[in-house]
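Q: Here's a chain of 571 amino acids. Please give me its 3D structure as C-alpha cells.
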Amino acid sequence: MTKLTNSTDRPQIGKFLLLAAQLGLVLLVADQFLIEQTYGFGNLIPIIFLGFVIHTWLPQRWRPQFFLLLFPVSAIVLLGTWSGTALIGLGIVLFLLCHLPVSITARAVIMVIVAGVLAAVRGGAIELPVPQEFWAFSRVIPTQTLPILSAMFMFRAIVYLYDLRHEKGPVSYWQRLGYFFMFPNVCFPLFPVIDYQTYKRTYYDTGSFEIYQQGINWILRGITHLLLYRIVYHYFVPDPLMIDTFAEVGQYALSSFLLYLRVSGLFHLIIGVLCLFGYNLPETHHRYYLAESFTDFWRRINIYWKDFMMKLFYYPIFLRLRSWGMTRAMIAATLITFVITWALHSYQWFWLRGTFPLHPQDMLFWSILAVLVTANSLYEEKYGRQRKKLAKNSAMSLPEALARSVKVTTVFVVICLLWSFWTSSSIEEWMAVMSVAAGASILEWLSFIALWILAIAVGIAMQLYGNRMSRTKPDRPFSLPQRAAWVGGVALFLLAIANPEVSSRLDSRSGDLVATITGDTLNTRDQQQLVKGYYEQMLGAETTGAMAWGVLQDMPDDWQWNGEPESDFIL
C-alpha cells in the first residue's frame, strides 16, 4: 500500500474551511464563465465540491473507494442512465481483461483484439446487434460512450500492463480501478496520459493540505489559461483567406501556437481536480513558451506525453539498438519515437472523432520536429547541456541573459511557424499565407527585426530583475493563508467582472471583451466555416483539416451537448 504522510489525520476545521472557501470561489468562477460547458463541466462542479468535502473527512481506508464511487455518479449524471451504465460495464470488462490468469503478453494480445472490435464499432464498420427498442441507445455508444472509454484505456492500459511486469508489493484493487475510472474522464475525453507508477507513488506523498491547496491553485491556473485562450480565439485569430500584410502573417503564426493554451488549461484543470482527492501529481506543462531549445520544448510541453513516449518507446528502442553505438542508437530511437508519436496522435484522433487522419502536414510536422529535436540532442551530446542553475547568491551576467533571450525568442518564432503549418487546413493554405511574407517590403522585415530585438531586451531585463530579486529576498514558501488570499483575490476579481452590474458600467470595448470571455461560443470565422461545412457535406464533399494537438477541434463532428444531465448527444 502506498505510504501516506499526514493523510490519516482529520483535517483541522480552520484549514478545511479556508480550502473549501477557495474551492467554492474557483468553481463558481468556472460556472460563471461557462468553462468547458460543451462537455458538461457545469454538471461536474457540484460533484467535485461535495466529493471533496466528504472525501476530506472520511477515514483514510475509505477514501479510495469513495473516489472510485464518484465515477459512476458522474457517468450517470453527465451521460444519462443508459450511456453511463454502458460506459461503466465496458470499462469493468476491459479492466478484468487486464487481469486474466494468463501471461502479460497474452493479455496484451487479447486487449488488442478487443480494441480492434471496438474500433470497428467506432468507425461504423460493425453495427451493434441490439433490439429495435434500443436502437437509439445503440447509436450513441459509438459517438458518446466509446470516445470516453477510449480516453480511459487507450494509453493507460498500455502503461498499466507494462508496469504490471515490474510491480512490487501489494496494491488494492480499489486503487487499481481508480487508475482507470477517474471521474473527470467522463467530462474530458482529451485526458493527460497519467503514469501508473506516478499515480501510486504520489498518493498522499506529502501533507494533505499542501496537496489540496496545490490542486486549487492548478484549477485556477487552468481556468486562467482557458480564459486567455478565449481572448486569443475571438480577437487574435485571423482568417487565412483575408491575410494580405506581413503583420497579419505574424498574427496568424503567433495565434496558432497561443491557441494551445486550451490544452494546457484543460490539463491543469484535470490534474488540479485529482489533487483534491490526494493524488499529488506533477504539473503537465512547464513554461513551454520559454523553451531554450527544441529538446527543451519537448521536455516542457505536455510532460505526461513526453514521459509516456520515453518510458514505453524511446528507452526500450535505444537499449535494443545500443550495439549500433550510442549516437546512432540515439538518432534512431528519437526518429522512431516521433513516428510512433504521430501514429498515436492519429490513433487518439480516431477514437475522439471517428476518422483516422492522414494529412500530409501532420506527417511533415512530426518529421520536421523529429529532425530538430534530434539535431538538438546531438548538439547537447557533443557540447554538453548546461543543467546547473545559478547558485543562490550568484549574479546573472548580461551575456548569459542575452544568450538565453536569443535562444528563447528564436525557438519561439520557429515553433510558431511550425505550429501554424500543422494546424492549417491544408499545405496550400499555409503556403498562400507565407507567400504574403515572402513579398514583404524591407521596411516590414526591419520592423520584425526591431520587434524581435525588443523581445530579447525585455527578456534580458526580466531575467536580470528576477535574478536580483531572488538574491535579495529570502526564499520563504507561501503559507496557507497567503495562498488563500491570492486565490481568493483572483477569483473575486473574475467574479466581479462577470457580474452584469459591474460589466455594464465598463466602456463598450471592455464590456464586449467581458461578454466574449464569459461565454463558450464560436468566433465569427468558425461560425462561417460551420455553415460552409454543412453545405459541403450535404453536397457530398469531404472536409479536411490538420489534426491539431490542441482541442480547438477536439470534439467529434457529430457531437453537441445540450446541457441536460439525462439526455444524449444530439446527432
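Q: Can you summarize the key feature?
A: The longest helix spans residues 442-472.
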